[in-house]
Each structure stands twice: as C-alpha cells, then as structure tokens.
Design a protein that fits this description.
Blueprint lengths: L1 H26 L12 E6 L5 E5 L12 H11 L5 E3 L21 E3 H9 L4 H15 L7 H18 L22 H11 L3 H7 L3 E3 L6 E3 L2 E3 L2 E3 L16 E9 L3 E9 L4 E9 L2 H18 E7 L4 E8 L6 E8 L3 E6 L6 E7 L15 E3 L7 E9 L2 E10 L8 H14 L1 H39 L1
Parallel strand pairs: 13-17
Antiparallel strand pairs: 1-2, 1-11, 3-4, 5-8, 6-7, 9-10, 10-11, 12-15, 13-14, 14-19, 16-18, 18-19
C-alpha cells in the first residue's frame, strides 16, 4: 500500500510542471501593464491593426531620435537604394553631443549604407546627408544651400506624416535633436513606423545587430579608405547582452534630456507581430526592462480567435405547423464568419444572443422558454440573426439561415390555412356579402315596385275602354 501511495506522489510531482505550463499558456504573461513608468505608450498588433495597450498615445511629446524612422522612410521613397552619394559639409551641422555614424566629408557610400548609418548607430550626421540629398532631388535643385535643403526636408517630413494620418506632429529637423517645436505622439510614431516597416530594406536594417563596411562596398575618401563598424543601439538585438530579447525585430531608440528614454520596438512569434511605441521612460534600465515585459504581454496574452465560421451551426430550433403538434429540429447556420484578436481572458466572456424572426415565431409559444417556429421553412431562408457581444459591446452579427427545408405544406394544410384565414378575416368576406345582399334586396324592391306601377297603369287603360 505504501509503495502504491509513493508512486502516486511521484506521479503528482511529475504532473505539476505540466499543469503549470498549461495554466501559463491559457492565462498568458502575469504582468500588470498599468505599472509601466513611461509617460506614453501604444502597442498595436501589425496584422490586424488592433490596439493592445494604450496610455497617453495622443499626447504631444518629444520623439528624439525616433524621428529618424520618418527620415529613413522619405529616403527609401525618394532615392535609389543602389545610388552612390557623396557626403558633404552638411555633416558639420551635427551637435557635438549628438550621436553620429562617423561619416567623413567627401566619402562615397550607397543610399542603403547611408540608411544603415542613420538607423544602426543613430547617426545625426547621416540624417543631415539624407535630408540634403532628398531635398535637392525633390526640389530639382542640386545647388540648394544646406540650410535650405534641411528646412525643405523638414517640411517634407511634416507633410508626409500628415498623409499617413499623423496629425499631431511637427518636424523641424531630420534627426530629433531637441527643439521645442519638434514634437509628435506615440500614435503618430506608430503610423510612421507601420509605413516604414512595409519596406524590406527598412525591416532588414532595423533588426541588424552589427554592420561593417569592411567589404567590397568600401569606398575611398581621397587616398584614404573609409571603413565603418556600427553596432545597433537597440539592446534587445544583442544576443550576449543583458536585455537581449529573442522575439525582437527592431526598430529604433531615442533619447534627449527633454524627451527622456524613448523606444520603438517590434517583436513577433508564430502567431502575432506587434509594434510598441514608448515615450519618456525615467531611466534607461526601465526602458529596456519594461519594454520587454510589454512585448511579452502583447505576444502571450492575445491571440486570434474564430468566434464563428461561415456555415457553422449556431443553434437549433423546433419547427412545426400551425394546426399540428408534431415538430422537427432545424439546425440554423451563420451566414458569415467572424474572427478577431482578443485578450485570452476575454474569450470565455464572448456571448451569442439569438433573435428569431418575429414573423416566424408560433404565437402560441409566447411566454414560454422554448421557441417554436412555424413552417414551411426553406433551405437558406433567413430565420433570425445572432449578435456576438463582449462585456455588453457588440463585436459582430450575422443572419441565421436554415440548413434545410422543413415542414412543407400539403393539401390539408392549405385547406386549414384557408379556413383559418377566413375565420380570422371574416369581415373581408362578410362585409362584401352584406353589401351585395343590400344591393340585391334594393334591386328586387325597385323591380317589384316598378312591376306594380306598370300593372296599375295597364288596369287603368282597360277600364277606359
């Protein structure tokens, strides 16, 4: 007996981790998103566009180097990635305390490598070169001054942002170095990032951990070969780092003393892909730790759920005939399906509310729990609708259609229905008959009086003769 009991305990101990794993899968990550310390946040699932988390997402704030996502987008849209450009004196505009890619005046590099210099080490020098190259090309003015080109490019940035729906942003430089009039929102930066992520070159660059120009693409500045080695500032991409996150796919860091620690991050698993915009973390440590927790929360606490498929059996209902008690059971189908992204905790709370076609309900069933419809009902006929709700909010609705034809009418049914119609609409028959009777009686009375009068006239004539 003791041996059996011991084996049972061993079995329970072995089973416990399995139960824990199953529970974690069902409940998702145990993290309170309300505990985050950043001032603004927006997390969106990319494929569905559904907002998973939001806090102050429309508040105007300073984006710092997150600005470079828009700078890169314009470069991708306006320049040939394979084109070789020459770095000019515009890089001297970079502030001494600003991040740079180490570009040198006169060096030549492709636009794609210029984008890497912009996004991987977050080079403000590269941002200026992008701005000048794009502005001069767009304005068709190669001799445009550097400052004119930078201002022109800033106008392009704001205009392009508004085209994307980013209405609460204004950009005055291509890099995000602080300016009181340079601002955006978490929501606007999401819109800009979403558009940039449509481009393969952007996706490839922002997930690159390390890049070096020490290869065939090296170019020369005068007699001196210019070589660069850039390490991504996004610590989630560094495999041996403290904040490495295996699901991370990009995209951009940002910091100024006024903007605080900012980060646009993206991550994916086999089910979901999310973009997370976080603005103004108090510390760099919190930026990385909390962003990882937020990404985990998004990837593990939400999933796509099919509420109903087109043609699924939603319910069944009794169908009978008016003058008979016998019934048949009819399956009713959803005319259209519905799938959406849900917090896994909400899925059990989804309710289906069925509303039957009032014209089909047997009036004798009113007040009773079981609904009975009156036939005949034809296959594909609409018999009602189903409304899906979550916490009182309507998610979707669909017509309910009959899966087959039932309770077809025979001759006896037609006779009974005809008689019932007459009984229920007696006035339609009686009134015309009454009117007809009155007319006939009136006609007979007039005819009788006319005959009497004619007989009296004929009798008078005989007496004269």
């Amino acid at each position: 007996m003791k041996r059996v009991f011991a084996l049972f305990l061993v079995f329970l101990i072995m089973l416990q981790p399995m139960l824990v794993i199953a529970t974690e899968e069902e409940q998702g990550t145990d993290f309170d998103p309300g505990s985050i310390t950043c001032e603004a946040v927006l997390m969106v699932e990319q494929n569905s566009g559904k907002v998973l988390l939001e806090k102050n997402s429309r508040k105007r704030m300073y984006p710092a180097s997150l600005t470079k996502v828009l700078t890169a987008l314009l470069a991708i849209e306006e320049l040939d990635l394979n084109e070789t450009i020459t770095v000019g004196r515009e890089i001297n505009l970079k502030a001494l305390d600003a991040s740079g890619a180490g570009l040198v005046v006169g060096e030549k590099l492709t636009v794609s490598d210029l984008l890497r210099a912009l996004l991987i080490p977050s080079g403000n020098d590269a941002a200026y070169t992008v701005a000048v190259q794009v502005a001069r090309k767009k304005a068709n003015n190669p001799s445009m001054s550097i400052q004119e080109a930078v201002d022109y490019f800033a106008e392009m940035m704001t205009e392009r942002a508004k085209e994307l729906g980013a209405e609460d942003s204004n950009f005055v430089n291509p890099h995000g170095y602080h300016d009181d009039n340079h601002y955006s929102t978490a929501y606007d930066m999401y819109l800009i990032t979403k558009e940039a992520m449509k481009h393969e070159i952007f996706r490839e660059i922002v997930r690159t951990q390390y890049y070096s120009t020490k290869n065939e693409e090296n170019t020369e500045s005068g007699d001196k070969k210019v070589e660069h080695s850039w390490v991504n500032r996004n610590l989630m991409l560094r495999k041996k780092g403290e904040y490495y996150y295996e699901n991370a796919t990009g995209v951009k860091t940002g910091y100024t003393s006024k903007a605080g620690n900012c980060l646009i991050s993206s991550a994916e698993n086999d089910k979901l892909s999310v973009i997370l915009v976080t603005l103004n973390f108090p510390t760099e440590k919190e930026r990385w730790e909390e962003s990882i927790k937020l990404l985990d929360y998004g990837l593990n606490n939400f999933r796509f759920h099919t509420v109903v498929k087109e043609g699924d059996i939603v319910s069944s209902v009794k169908v009978g005939k008016k003058f008979f008690k016998n019934t048949v059971t009819l399956d009713v189908l959803a005319e259209k399906g519905f799938e959406d992204l849900f917090n896994i905790k909400d899925i059990p709370e989804i309710k289906a509310n069925i509303e039957w076609d009032s014209n089909l309900i047997d009036p004798r069933q009113e007040g009773q729990d079981e609904i009975r419809l009156l036939g005949p009902i034809n296959e594909g006929q609409k018999v009602g609708r189903v409304v899906y709700t979550l916490n009182g909010n309507i998610l979707s609705e669909s017509n309910l259609i009959a899966s087959e034809s039932v309770m077809k009418l025979n001759i006896l049914d037609h006779v009974l229905l005809g008689g019932d119609y007459v009984l229920r609409h007696w006035y339609i028959v009686v009134i015309p008959l009454a009117v007809l009777a009155v007319v006939l009686l009136g006609t007979l009375s007039v005819s009788k009086a006319r005959r009497k009068k004619e007989q009296g006239v004929n009798l008078g004539k005989r007496r004269r003769y």
